[in-house]
């Protein structure tokens, strides 16, 4: 999600100067627009629904929520996040390549850009109170991806399977750690219920598990308390969101780096290979669609069914990890989402090349150009609708009803973004980010250049 990538004309003297926007790679803006709108499908339940919201209907095939959830998991979950990271990686090349051709170093300018994005992410999480912010991670991980920008595409692309395997191993080790603590707890608790005296180790096992439950597996009373906080004042909502956001941004940062870094590197590779810039033949894009959906859809459908059967609720999940030390099915995840994501992109590219849905494509292009502003706008709209200090709709809607709002936000942004760009070069946040990066106010209105 490089939020202001472009093909630019620059006036460069002693150091890189701000670019004047004259031409962009339209298809990348369109793909970014697709990713931006698509990510709201997966984000909106976390603005609006309490913990364990899916448990009442997750196995009820007669419930519209089940099928809405199934479509989201099969077609969008993980794919839109991957696409965001992919386009962000391509944006690194777009931002740096033309500047570097002048022989001037772009390193400090790029790092300033990422540092400011990191600060935006902190504000997004802790002031606007969006628990799922990605700007912070993209700012930090973008600094790492920058170091790989000149690597050959084939080596960049190898990062995806390597990270998928590393991720599987890390998740397995985490699962086994949880499993070990759970089994120790069960053994100690069984003795306690029988009236036996417990050793210090057994007492510690019970306390360790209870602490772990409080952090990861809240009980119904704690869920009710958390829901009440989300329906409270700004400070009450913040008291729930901020500690979790802080843990994600610092305590668990090491676990977030590798997936995003690998996908950014894949984005750089696919840009260099011409996949993202329509340099492939239509036959190649069609082959990608057939392979992507032909392999990816059966894999994700199998995974969805397996998880629905084995993980419908907390109790079933605990029973599963008690009986299984390794969840081999989770190995499917990274491969199916990359396959389907690339098929999605190929469909968009072919539709664009054939001239279909021109008005929609223009709208998506504008949404992609204003992706930073539109992304934060999602958070502002959703927090003001669902959180207690807004319209207090948290935990009030059915899952499927959320997607009426998603559709409304899509229509609004598809309509308003092209209108905004008639008079302005950038979105408000894109302009602010650009001005902070270059250390001076940038042109904002089109009549200023």
Automatic annotation (TrEMBL):
Domain DUF418: 270-439
Signal peptide positions (record): none
Positions of transmembrane segments: 30-49, 69-94, 106-122, 128-148, 155-175, 252-276, 288-306, 326-352, 372-390, 402-421
Keywords linked to the UniProt accession: Membrane, Transmembrane, Transmembrane helix
The protein's name: DUF418 domain-containing protein
């Amino acid at each position: 999600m490089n939020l202001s990538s472009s093909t630019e004309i620059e006036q460069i003297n002693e150091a890189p100067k701000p670019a004047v926007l004259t031409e962009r790679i339209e298809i990348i803006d369109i793909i970014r627009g697709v990713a931006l709108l698509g990510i709201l499908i997966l984000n909106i339940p976390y603005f609006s629904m309490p913990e364990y919201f899916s448990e009442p209907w997750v196995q009820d095939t007669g419930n519209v929520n089940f099928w809405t959830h199934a479509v989201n998991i099969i077609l969008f979950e993980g794919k839109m996040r991957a696409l965001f990271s992919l386009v962000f990686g391509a944006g690194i090349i777009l931002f740096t390549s033309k500047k570097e051709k002048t022989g001037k170093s772009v390193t400090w300018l790029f790092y300033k850009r990422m540092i400011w994005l990191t600060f935006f992410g902190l504000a997004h999480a802790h002031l606007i109170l969006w628990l799922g912010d990605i700007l912070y991670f993209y700012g930090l991980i973008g600094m790492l991806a920058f170091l790989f920008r000149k690597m050959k595409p084939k080596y960049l692309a190898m990062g995806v399977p390597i990270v998928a395997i590393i991720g599987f191993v890390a998740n397995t080790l985490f699962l086994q750690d949880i499993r070990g603590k759970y089994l120790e707890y069960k053994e100690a608790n069984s003795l306690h219920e029988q009236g036996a005296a417990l050793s210090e180790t057994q007492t510690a096992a019970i306390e360790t598990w209870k602490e772990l439950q409080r952090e990861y597996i809240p009980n119904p009373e704690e869920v009710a308390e958390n829901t009440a906080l989300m329906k409270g004042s700004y400070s009450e909502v913040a008291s729930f969101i901020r500690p979790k956001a802080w843990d994600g941004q610092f305590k668990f940062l090491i676990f977030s780096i590798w997936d995003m870094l690998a996908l950014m590197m894949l984005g750089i590779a696919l840009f260099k290979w011409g996949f993202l810039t329509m340099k492939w033949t239509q036959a190649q894009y069609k082959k990608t669609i057939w392979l992507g959906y032909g392999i990816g859809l059966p894999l994700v459908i199998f995974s969805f069914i397996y998880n629905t059967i084995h993980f419908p609720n907390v109790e079933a999940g605990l029973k599963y990890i008690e009986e299984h030390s390794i969840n081999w099915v989770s190995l499917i995840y990274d491969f199916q989402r990359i396959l389907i994501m690339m098929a999605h992109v190929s469909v968009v590219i072919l539709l664009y090349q054939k001239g279909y849905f021109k008005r929609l494509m223009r709208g998506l292009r504008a949404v992609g150009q204003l992706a930073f502003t539109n992304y934060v706008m999602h958070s502002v709209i959703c927090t003001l609708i669902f959180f207690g200090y807004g319209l207090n709709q948290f935990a009030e809607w059915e899952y499927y009803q959320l997607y009426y709002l998603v559709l409304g936000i899509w229509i609004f942004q598809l309509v308003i973004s092209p209108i905004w760009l008639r008079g302005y070069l950038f979105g408000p946040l894109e302009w602010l980010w650009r001005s902070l990066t270059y250390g001076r106010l940038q042109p904002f209105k089109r009549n200023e250049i």
